Each structure stands twice: as structure tokens, then as C-alpha cells.
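Model it.
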Amino acid sequence: MKDLKPSASLGVFARAQTLALRASLIEKLKNASNSPHSEESIHDLRVAIRRFTQCIRLFESFFRGRAAGNIRKRLKNLLDLCGEVRNHDIAQQLLGEAAFSSGSLIDDLHRSRRHLEKKLARRLRRRKLRRRLDDWSAHLRRGPGSSGDLWNSASPVFENAKRVLPGMASDFFEKGSRATAPGANYQSMHQFRLLAKRLRYTLEIFAPAYSDKLAPALTALRGLQDHLGAINDCVTSRQLTPRNSKADRAIRNLMPAREAGFRAYWKREFPPTAAAIWQSWLTSAISKSEETTHEHLHTKTRGSRAGHRRASRRQSPADSTR
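Modeled.
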């Protein structure tokens, strides 16, 4: 993925990114199957699903038939189940943060969480989804295929990126201004949260075409997601405590500070001047010297790895155990 030249065609780039994200998803599926009780494993799986899903959503026209839509639907069902498990973990954390203590409610959340964990474990043990992911490369077009209206698969990655990504960034800043405006409701924040998440994963996918130019943008987006996620955690947790007015009130009381934190972060990291800076980042090509250095480093790395493998093969059995 990263050793592709930034001048590679989008068709080659899309295939490489999709296969790399598929491999990461399969690894996270295996980890979660082995540890369905682990909050970290479930979190990592959710992120891997979102990244892969955003990739195939972006490049859907590069897949045969309805392959992209079918796999997205299956992954969405798994993502929802992972989300239910996580929501129970978050609800218990927030109740602790709010200094709320009710043994019966906590016990109910524990029991419900264990039930969902078992359900998730059964789902993860199924081989059908993993087989579909293993066979995914058969659905990828090897030639340019149909590029639809959005992409030109034969053109370089950056030429496509600078044509499409600035518009996505403009939409992001417009929606962000609305979500942080006085009186903005949770629904507008929620929709903006989803938009910001998709933009972040899209920029991560295209990051190799920009060298390190997108690092500041990605850092800012991750922080923004943390603030928006903290607000969303309160909403999903309240949905798990609808019949306990004290618990509901305790969690609801956490929201004003979180919403204020989100607005302050937006004002600090995404001021009115930031939109133009982002446009500059997204339309500025990697210089020839950067591209040469980028390619040289990866060529050198590949050569070093090959030399290491040859040296390893020459080692005696005794040497190789050191």
C-alpha cells in the first residue's frame, strides 16, 4: 500500500488499499473471535469494519456486480452487534463517572452484556463472512472497469484526489459550522459525527498520495471524533436506562460539558481560516523530490528486507536460535 508510487493509477491504488484493509479486517475478526469478552478487541474490530466499509463505499464502481453492497450489508449487521456490546460497557463507565450507584441496574447491564457477548461470539465463529472476505479479491476488477461519475481509474491517484476530496472537505466545514451553531440539536451533531468519521477514513485511505501533508488534518479529525463520540456515548447510554429516572438524569447531566467541549474544540482547531488551509493541503501535489525520496525509501526498505531474508537462510540452525 504505502510502497505504491503516488503517481500510480487510481485503479491500482484502489485495489491495493482494499486488499490491505481487508487483510486488517480479517486479522481483527480473528482476534475478536478469540477474545469476544475483550473491549479492546471489539473496539479494534469496529474500527476495521468502518475503514473497510468506507473503502468499498468509495470505490464501489471498481467491484463486479453487487459484491460491494452485499458485503457492506453483512458487515453492518456485525457492526451493530459489536456496537450493542460496547454500549453496555460505556453505560457502566458513564454511570461510574456520574457517581451513580444502583446495584440492580449495574447487575442488569452486566447480564445483558454477557448475553450480547455470547451472541457476538456465536456470530464471530461463523465461517461464512470470513470466507467471503477471503474470496474478496475475486470481486475486484483487474482492469480499469467502470469508474462511474466520481473516479477516473486510469488517471493518477492524486489527480482523482484533488478533484474529489476538496469538495468533501467543504461539505465537512459547512456541516461543522451548523452543528456548532447556538441551538444546534443532537441530531445535527450526530449526522456531523458520521460525516467527520467518513472524511477521516477517506483521508487515511488517500494519505499515501500526499506523503505526510495530511497528518495535521488527521490529528484534528481524531480529536474531533473523540469529542463527538463522548456526546454520542451519553445518548446511547440513556437508551439503556429508560426506566431509571435517576440514572437517566445522572448521564444527561454529563452532556452540557461535553457539548461545550466539542464547540470549544471546533473553534480552536477549525477556525474560519482552516477551510482554506485544508483546500491547500488537498490540492497540493507531492513535489518531485518528495516523490523520489518516498520511492527511494521504500525501495531501500524492500532491498534491506530481501538481504535480511538471504542472510537468515545462510545462518546455521544454532545461529538462528539466538
